[in-house]
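Q: Could you fold this chain for me?
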Amino acid sequence: MESFIKIIEKKIKSNIDAKSIEVIDNSHKHRGHKNYQENKLHLKIVINSDHLKSLDRIQAHKKIMKILKNEIKEKIHALELKIN
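A: Sure. Below is the predicted structure, expressed as structure tokens.
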């Protein structure tokens, strides 16, 4: 079965023209926090995309959030985006 990280990368790549995408699982940094849930991930996504860079920050973030809408409901607790 394909890893959740790879699924996220594929979903973004199929919806946005990106030179590179790196998905980093930072869940281990949040263990013990008040609202930590073992089955939810804390992810950082670094995207190198001229298209996203051409949008203002809020528009770019909304676009990614829309693409990952189902994953955010089901498996992602926190999402940090860095757009280069």
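A (continued): Residues 4-15 form the longest helix (12 residues).
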